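Final report, closing paragraph on structural work. Over the funding period we assembled a curated collection of sequence-structure pairs, and we close with a single example.
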Amino acid sequence: MECRVLSVQSHVVRGYVGNKSASFPLQVLGFEVDSINSVQFSNHTGYEHWRGQVLNADELQSLYEGIKLNQLTHYDYILTGYSRDESFLQRIVEIIQELRSKNPKLVYVCDPVMGDHGSMYVPEVLLPVYKEKVLPIADILTPNQFEAELLTGKKITSEEEALEVMSLLHDAGPHTVVITSSDLPSPRGQDYLVALGSQRRGGCVQRVRMDIPREDAVFVGTGDLFAALLLAWTHTHPEDLKTACEKTVSTMQHVIKRTMEHAHSVCAGGRPGAAELELRMIQSKNDIEQPDITIRAQSI
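Its predicted structure, as stored:
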């Protein structure tokens, strides 16, 4: 049967971030994707210059009303990412609740985009909305380490503390939590990031850990790609978090490796900039469809 996703994220004219990063892989994997763009920018803000517009809560409601008037509001999944306005995020919550009243099986995948490396890049007023309104209705959550710490008020300095934080997030609502990246020490050395996943369903708990090679570059749009891929692979493997995470992270590695190879080929020994490091998404179509598993998850 047709599986339809409503994705509410940022949009850029050039490059891959937000909906541009999430829609293509979901479509390649067989999902119909309806997109609402929380912002529309010329390019991501890592460039020297950018221009664009921000959608407000009333404009979001107007778009939703148009869908509703045509009776087009049956969705299997909701995917949300970047939002920088409190009323906009509140309106998203109201829309999800209304959609879920029409389809109780609707799955909400939330990427709580708030910050990284100890700093918030959205207004702090969004944090209580995420904690009090978003978490209770979310099914799948994909924070980075900093965002997981913000949502729970707990610092993560060890694997045990990470597991405790994920347990607290389960208690708040989501049955599946994946901390997409952390600075926890890896037995494989400093050149690796650590990702951790936890799923609590039907009285059973699955927990996994992945050690991921760290690249000496700054990528934009990878978090949006991760959330979209996890949506797709948990749909295929709803009771097998290990396999879903392996396919998600391995696909990410294929895309990042291809991006780095391209960046170095066009920079002729120089350091790649924002334009050279745009994700090579189209060129990775085959890897998205049938990922070769290069990153194995360990059950913990």
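Residues 241-267 form the longest helix (27 residues). The longest strand covers residues 32-41. We thank the funder for supporting this effort.
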